[in-house]
Design brief:
GO cellular component, one term: maltose transport complex
GO molecular function, one term: ABC-type maltose transporter activity
Shape: flat
Pfam families: BPD_transp_1
Number of domains: 2
CATH class of the largest domain: Mainly Alpha
Strand content: under 5%
Keywords: Cell membrane, Membrane, Sugar transport, Transmembrane, Transmembrane helix, Transport
Largest sheet: none
Order of helices and strands: HHHHHHHHHHHHHHHHH
CATH superfamily of the largest domain: MetI-like
Distance between the termini: 56 Å
Mean pLDDT: 87
Low-confidence stretches: none
Number of helices: 17
Subcellular location: Cell membrane
Helix content: over 70%
CATH architecture of the largest domain: Orthogonal Bundle
Length: 436
């Protein structure tokens, strides 16, 4: 093509354009005779260097050292400045890469003799093809500083020694690597135990048990009640459905506080009015075992109405012809439930049910409002009913163990992310699936 094209410039080298763009943004465009674009890139780079170079230099120094003068340097501020500098550098590198690629692309066009658009044509093309990006960009910038920056800060804290004994600016923070994670998983104290490891194992185990048992019970109860109400022999279905959905209408925090009063060991209605008839009194708020049972029952009460409403809608969409065909084949009630009802319900609601498990895994409200994660457990720095998220809250606002809280938050985030990825994969599988 270039051999037959008189406008082709074989001596125009794209590598030179790339090198010039790397040396200074815009030089490659000037080499390609795209003067307006080149001047814009030069202005952007020079402005970036003049206005932000000193801040970025200070931020990088701060995140590397976390300060050198005790009582003067504030390690937390230096850490934040450093993270902001990293985000700014990421934005700058993105534009720099775009500048280099643009210079190379134009140079190849010139060498092949292709027509290069004028500045006005380039602006029009960018506006036509990049219109969505112009509106997305402000949101992405806000996302970087509102969401990504706090996440980066949390991750960074997990690798420091930030605690009540190292409060800036009275003391300087230090990078400790994976020591915080090692304290949770591997280290053993001098007496043969490690309070962090023991507490983490206990809290993590209870979190898993809580998530599986409480969520499975609320799903099972919701399915059982939906099957009963959907039975054709049941009358007054609308009234029954309204009554069963009422717990969902009351704000959860109100219900939890009411149950906390009902389960109170001294004056609660459970002990004084119900169990007293059998000469029983259970320490609901003093014994971790009974407190956990109470929490599971309360969560089952709070969670089943949503599942009931969800399953009710799904059950009504199942064709009656399937059940009639199954009856002709001599299928029992259990066989119809196992082969028709259950597959159809799970097929339609599995992603939402997975979200129920993920939600209960991080269900802070019920744990904190019922008994603030208590009762206390000897040899641990978490309550007997604390789950990971409530333990993080205690470490942050009561014990001031910020770095350990950040480390646990990372572990918590990875687990929840695994739930989310599994859910998205299942959702995609359902969309691609044809029939049951």
């Amino acid at each position: 093509m270039s051999a037959n094209n008189p406008t082709a410039r074989k001596n125009h080298n794209p590598k030179i354009a790339m090198v010039l763009s790397i040396l200074l943004a815009g030089l490659g465009q000037l080499y390609n005779r795209r003067y307006v674009k080149g001047i814009i890139f030069i202005i952007l780079e020079v402005s970036f260097i003049v206005t932000l170079a000193e801040f970025i230099n200070y931020g990088i120094w701060g995140i590397m050292t976390l300060g050198t003068l005790q009582g003067t340097d504030h390690s937390i501020f230096l850490l934040i400045y450093g993270l902001i500098s990293i985000i700014l550098i990421a934005f700058a590198l993105t534009l720099y890469i775009a500048n280099v690629r643009d210079a190379k692309k134009d140079a190849i066009r010139i060498r092949n003799g292709e027509k290069t658009p004028t500045f006005k044509e380039g602006v029009r093309n960018v506006w036509d093809t990049g219109f969505p990006y112009f509106f997305i960009t402000p949101g992405l910038i806000m996302l970087a500083f509102i969401v990504i920056l706090p996440l980066m800060f949390t991750v960074a804290l997990a690798f420091t020694d930030y605690s009540q004994y190292t409060q800036p600016p009275r003391a300087l923070l230090s990078w400790v690597g994976f020591d915080n994670f090692a304290r949770l998983f591997f280290e053993t104290g001098g007496a043969g135990n490690n309070i962090w490891q023991d507490t983490f194992i206990s809290v993590f185990t209870w979190t898993i048990v809580w998530t599986l048992v409480a969520t499975t019970l609320q799903i099972s109860l919701g399915l059982f009640l939906a099957l009963l109400v959907n039975d054709p022999r049941i009358k007054f279905k609308r009234l029954i459905r309204t009554i069963l959905i009422l717990p969902w209408a009351v704000p959860a925090f109100v219900t939890i506080l009411v149950f906390a009063a009902m389960f109170n060991d001294r004056f609660g209605a459970i002990n004084t009015d119900i169990l007293a008839l059998f000469n029983l009194s259970i320490p609901w708020l003093q014994d971790p075992f009974y407190t956990r049972i109470a929490l599971i029952m309360i969560q089952t009460w709070l969670g089943f109405p949503f599942v009931f409403a969800l399953f009710t809608g799904i059950l009504q969409s199942i064709s009656k012809d399937w059940y009639e065909a199954a009856e002709v084949d001599g299928a029992s009630r259990f066989q119809k439930f196992r082969n028709i009802t259950l597959p159809h319900v799970l097929f339609a609601t599995a992603p939402l049910l997975i979200m129920q498990y993920a939600g209960n895994f991080n269900n802070f409200n019920i744990i904190y409002l019922f008994n603030e994660g208590g009762p206390a457990v000897r040899g641990q720095n978490a309550g007997g009913t604390d789950i990971l998220i409530s333990w993080v809250y205690d470490l942050t606002f009561e014990l001031n163990q910020y770095s350990m809280a950040a480390a646990i938050t990372i572990i918590l985030g990875l687990i929840v992310t695994g739930f989310a990825i599994f859910q998205f994969r299942r959702t995609r599988a359902f969309k691609e699936e044809g029939n049951i």
